[in-house]
């Protein structure tokens, strides 16, 4: 295992814990949302704060950054849109009657989930509520979005003719133990996915394979067919709530209150790796270039070799739970409830991992070549080879 890392920069501008960290699609900016009721915009080029968004009347629960606009939601029941250049508040979305804890931006839509038991859809530009999704018996904690074009065949789409005005669907996970899929155009519930016996904390969507993954306080992860609503698999080995999920190349990574991350093969349901060493819940995780980065309630971030599970580095310095991590240009950004944004240089472990992957590929190539020659030889003189092996 490598030595403990030290941050190349510590940003202490916030006066309260940082609840979320968002990276813009172009990678040029980061957005932090804080318990102090403000959001701050950071440049990934110089790691300086270039924007301070003030206006919320309570703490910010979540934030989302586009290239030209920033979005924040708050315990003050509102969502705000901000200009990333001027810092001006461009819109306030009002309608929720309790804490707004999650937002999602897709196309021209802004989706939100709240403790008021509803999810809502807003027009990004018109500051107007388009739809309300009502049916959960408790608060909506997590959201996902897809289009039926991504998952339905033509004949299946014809069956949903009334929904053709908009083929967008919203997925919501709730503390009422259910996942619901909604038609955005009508607000009608398309599917209710039943099976969890605890709050649904996280969702990951794989629209191309028609699959949805949900993690819960019932210690399980469940896989669903998002067209039929059928439950496909249940992943049961965690001993605590499943807090976060990451899907990469048909490998599912799950972070849990049991202080571990597990890696599962999606196609078989087999658990192939467990990443230990955390001293508290795993609150966030991110896969990058063959390395699994985690943030924990023990105030440390960690880097694991994703294949072997070996702990490669510990990043120490935060005082409280790490709530979110982002990676850009081989820099690791960690945001914590201690109010700081810390930036870590991960070039060393990335470089070592690339060398290791290159060696493994070369070894596999040599093995494949030997295997091909062996098969050719066996085809020609199989009996002779078998006799030589016995001798």
UniProtKB/TrEMBL annotation:
Q: Which InterPro entries match?
A: Quino_amine_DH_bsu (IPR011044), WD40/YVTN_repeat-like_dom_sf (IPR015943), WD40_PAC1 (IPR020472), WD40_repeat_CS (IPR019775), WD40_repeat_dom_sf (IPR036322), WD40_rpt (IPR001680), WDR86-like (IPR044715)
Alphabetic keyword roster: Repeat, WD repeat
Q: Which SUPFAM superfamilies match?
A: WD40 repeat-like (SSF50978), YVTN repeat-like/Quinoprotein amine dehydrogenase (SSF50969)
| Pfam families (UniProt xref) | WD40
At the top level, the lineage of the source is Eukaryota
First and last residues of every WD repeat: 11-43, 93-132, 169-192, 193-234, 235-274, 315-347
The record ties this protein, via CDD domains, to: WD40
UniProt xrefs under PROSITE patterns:
WD_REPEATS_1, WD_REPEATS_2, WD_REPEATS_REGION
Family matches, as PANTHER family: PTHR44489, WD REPEAT DOMAIN 86
UniProt name for this protein: WDR86 protein
Q: Which organism is it from?
A: Podargus strigoides
Q: What is the lineage of its organism?
A: Eukaryota, Metazoa, Chordata, Craniata, Vertebrata
């Amino acid at each position: 295992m490598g030595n403990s890392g030290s941050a190349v920069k510590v940003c202490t501008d916030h006066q309260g814990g940082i609840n979320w960290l968002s990276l813009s699609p172009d990678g040029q900016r980061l957005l932090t949302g804080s318990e102090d009721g403000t959001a701050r915009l950071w440049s990934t080029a110089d790691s300086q704060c270039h924007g301070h968004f003030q206006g919320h009347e309570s703490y910010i629960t979540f934030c989302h950054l586009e290239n030209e606009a920033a979005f924040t939601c708050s315990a003050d029941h509102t969502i705000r849109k901000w200009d990333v250049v001027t810092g001006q508040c461009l819109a306030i979305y009002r309608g929720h009657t309790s804490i707004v804890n999650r937002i999602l931006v897709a196309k021209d839509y802004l989706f939100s989930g709240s403790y008021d038991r509803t999810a809502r859809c807003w027009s990004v530009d018109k500051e107007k509520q388009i739809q309300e999704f009502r049916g959960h018996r408790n608060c909506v904690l997590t959201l996902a979005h897809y289009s039926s074009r991504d998952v339905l065949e033509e004949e299946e789409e014809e069956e949903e003719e009334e929904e053709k005005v908009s083929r967008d669907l919203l997925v919501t996970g709730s503390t009422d133990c259910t996942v619901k899929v909604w038609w955005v155009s009508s607000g009608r519930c398309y599917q209710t996915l039943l099976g969890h016996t605890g709050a649904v904390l996280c969702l990951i969507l794989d629209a191309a394979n028609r699959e949805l993954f949900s993690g819960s306080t019932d210690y399980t992860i469940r896989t669903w067919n998002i067209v039929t609503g059928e439950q496909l698999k249940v992943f049961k080995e965690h001993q605590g709530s499943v807090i976060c999920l990451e899907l990469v190349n048909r490998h599912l990574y799950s972070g849990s209150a049991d202080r571990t991350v597990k890696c599962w093969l999606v196609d078989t349901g087999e658990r192939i790796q467990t990443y230990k060493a955390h001293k508290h819940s795993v609150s966030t995780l991110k896969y990058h270039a063959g390395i699994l980065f985690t943030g924990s309630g023990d105030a440390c971030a960690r880097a694991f070799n994703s294949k072997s599970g070996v702990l490669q580095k510990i990043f120490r310095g935060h005082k409280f739970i790490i709530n979110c991590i982002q990676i850009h240009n081989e820099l690791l950004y960690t945001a914590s409830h201690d109010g700081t944004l810390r930036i870590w240089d991960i070039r060393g472990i990335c470089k070592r991992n690339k060398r290791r992957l290159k060696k493994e590929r070369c070894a596999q190539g040599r093995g494949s070549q030997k295997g091909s020659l062996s098969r050719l030889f066996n085809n020609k003189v199989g009996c002779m080879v078998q006799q030589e092996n016995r001798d």
